[in-house]
Amino acid sequence: SRIAVFASGQGSNFAALIAAERVGLLGGGSIELLVSDKPEAPVAQRAEEAGVSTLLLRPKEFASRELYEAEIVAELQRREIGLIVLAGYMRLITPVLLTPYAGRIINIHPSLLPAFAGKDAMGQALDYGVKLTGVTVHFVDGGMDTGPVIAQRSLVVEDNDTATSLAERIHKVEYELYPEVVAALAAERIGLVGRKTIIREK
Ligand code: GRF
Prior knowledge:
One of its GO terms (cellular component) is cytosol. (6R)-10-formyltetrahydrofolate binds at residues 65, 90-93, 107. The protein is globular and about 50 Å long. 38% of the residues are buried. The protein has one domain (2-199): 3-Layer(aba) Sandwich (Rossmann fold), CATH 3.40.50.170. The chain contains 6 helices and 9 strands, in the order E-H-E-H-E-H-E-H-E-H-E-E-H-E-E. Helix 2 (42-50) links the parallel strand 2 (30-36) and strand 3. It has helices at 12-22, 42-50, 65-78, 95-98, 121-128, 163-186; strands spanning 2-6, 30-36, 53-56, 83-86, 105-109, 132-139, 149-156, 190-193, 196-199. The strands form 2 sheets. The chain has a 7-stranded mixed beta sheet with strand order 3-2-1-4-5-6-7, sandwiched between helices. It is an alpha/beta fold and 202 residues long. The protein binds 5-O-phosphono-beta-D-ribofuranosylamine (GRF). 5-O-phosphono-beta-D-ribofuranosylamine is lined by residues 7, 9-14, 87-88, 108-110, 174. 5-O-phosphono-beta-D-ribofuranosylamine binds next to helix 1 and strand 5.
């Protein structure tokens, strides 16, 4: 499958996905495009260095969210993109993108959903004082981190954890888990019935 990664920030997950593809760990998926709503974001630079095409748009320059997304959909269709992988893309998605990509758009979130949806999930978890947190990969729907869960990994919050130390361990988990799930989706090994997903083993 031809994959577009959407990202707004640092792009370390984008880099992990590119690295996984290079060593044959993306299940026949190929990353063809980076879409970003922040043309100045470090992820755009990473894509250029990796030789991945970019679509860099400023949503503010469009009359509506729908028109912004319609421009993206046109480009995805032109490039025959089959899967959308959100990796730190900080925007809600509308039906303009969701309808043509139903069941083919996923996100990664740095908490065990449904706990700590939305922004700064790791900060929310630390403030709450939970002893366990983790990473969730889920299908995307119109809500904020609300779609069906595909995979979760937990990790222990240590007594001396800071935002930095926790983020470092969360990221490590993300860089392993996301390529595995993208590979499964690219190989059509993920089933979805209602909210329940099943990953078929290779
Ligand atoms: C990740 O922690 C991801 O879970 C969240 O946004 C962050 C993106 O980090 N959705 P990066 O841009 O991949 O470094």
